[in-house]
Amino acid sequence: MRLLVAEDEPHIAADLRGALEQAGYAVDLAVDGEAAWFQAEVEAYDAMILDLGLPRLDGLSLLRRLRGAGSTMPVLILTARDGWREKVEGIDAGADDYLAKPFRMEELLARLRAILRRAAGHASALLVAGPLELDTRSRTVAVDGRALALTALEYRLLAYLLHHRGRAVPAGELLDHLYDGEAERETNAIEALLARLRRKLGTPLIETRRGHGYVIAAA
Amino acid sequence: MRLLVAEDEPHIAADLRGALEQAGYAVDLAVDGEAAWFQAEVEAYDAMILDLGLPRLDGLSLLRRLRGAGSTMPVLILTARDGWREKVEGIDAGADDYLAKPFRMEELLARLRAILRRAAGHASALLVAGPLELDTRSRTVAVDGRALALTALEYRLLAYLLHHRGRAVPAGELLDHLYDGEAERETNAIEALLARLRRKLGTPLIETRRGHGYVIAAA
DNA sequence: CGCGCGCTGTCAGCGCAATGTCAGCGGGGC
DNA sequence: GCCCCGCTGACATTGCGCTGACAGCGCGCG
After folding, report:
1. What pLDDT is stored for residue A219 in this prediction?
2. Residue A131 dihedral angles phi and psi, to the nearest 5°
3. pTM
């Protein structure tokens, strides 16, 4: 899962990036509204965390512009103000959730998990596929009840596939969503990663559909 | 839109019903957790507003039971408690949103609109022709409900024909649209491809109009 | 501050599914 | 009845995706 954080206050931005990366997400930062708009247009994000008080282009206008352009990306709004009017306005502008500063990082993470799983059409925080269980809260994975030690990237890959169960996910899409904007990689990186993950899973759970992508076995 | 409100405090329940009906929703009330569970099982609701402090079966347990039973109905949690732990727990149990009492009715309505809007956005694009179904989201194809394993090109060909249903598509046009410009192929490539596709489909769905092109049977 | 280890991307080679080509055939249209 | 378009099965080729080896990097530990 790859996130865009639009926040101009450096300290908060750094905190957010740290906590989110710790929680297993790939994170890109944008320091003003125009930058965020550009990033959101050009790159592929699974969700956006948006501070309302941004320079150059304020959060609400950015959100309306995004929605106007047809984007359905989940957006979590962050704000200093706490009035219900702003909340209502933000939510009706197309925000998926709303959080007032100061907030507990745990709550932000929980709300983020919620909008991500909702965007994927799931109700539960526990993703299950046959003998496989992935718990997005504790970031743990088990097969047949036996816990697995996955690396950060392996976890991200598996979580992404589970979020998109029932669909063949192309390797190119995985490249877009597993990494932040720093470096370019070739699709072979995905293949290698996948090979390692499959070996750890033991069971053949991830199916390759030549030319289409990868799918988690329906089971 | 039909809503289920699970709230035991009569005064709040009446307020909610009033405001929600005012806003144009059909509203059913449930006064305890067991009743809400029964209602949710028997009737079809577009969303549920759930108080956590319910008698007989508390809200969180009810929510977990619902999610465990596979329901994806949007649920908005209402609570007197305001600690972040409860929020996190509620959201991770599968709630779509969370609101602490006391709240402004406007905010509740806004959040309700948001979760309803989101739940509506999950329809997947289906192309249908008689017994044939092609789902562009999952990139899957089925005939009479039986899934087919198509190769990337076969899928592209079929999707193109379905997009242009009702028109005879010449082989030359298919050559132009199925391949990216690099290599030149002969129209026989299309014929061979088509033969393989027809064999997999089983039923004679793709008709040849000699001299004009190919059409998907109107069905 | 240096060392080592785990993580991860790249490379080269390989096997196999996918797909284009070819040659022969059948049938529809004029 | 002839001719040409389109179909088919066989075969060749290509390129996708898998694998094992290796190297760079970052982080924790001594």
Report:
1. 63
2. -80, 0
3. 0.84
pLDDT for the residue B99: 87
- For residue B205, CA distances in Å to B127, B161, B172, B218 come to 14, 11, 20, 9
Q: Chain-wide mean pLDDT for chain B?
A: 87
Count Cα atoms within 13 angstroms, Cβ side, for B174.
Answer: 31
CA torsion angle A81 A87 A90 A96 (round to 10): 120
Give chain D positions with protein CB within 7 A.
Answer: 5-10, 15-21
Residues in chain B: 219
The pLDDT of residue B182 is 63
**Are A123 and B84 a contacting pair at CB < 8 A?**
no
C-alpha separations of B213 from B128, B150, B155, B176 in Å = 20, 22, 18, 14
**Peptide bond connecting B102 to the previous residue in cis, omega within 30 degrees of 0:** yes
Q: Given the structure tokens 């990216």, which residue do they identify?
A: B180
DSSP 3-state of A145: coil
Count the Cβ atoms, other than its own, within 10 Å of residue A57. 16
Pick B111's closest partner by Cβ from A91, A166, A168. A91
- Confidence at residue A66, expressed as pLDDT on a 0 to 100 scale: 93
Please, what's the b/e burial string for A113-151 (b: 16 or more CB within 10 A of its CB; e: otherwise)?
bbbbbbbbbbbbbbbebebbbbebeeeebebeeeebebe
In contact, B25 and B115? CB cutoff 8 Å: no
Alpha carbon distance A195, A67 (integer Å): 38
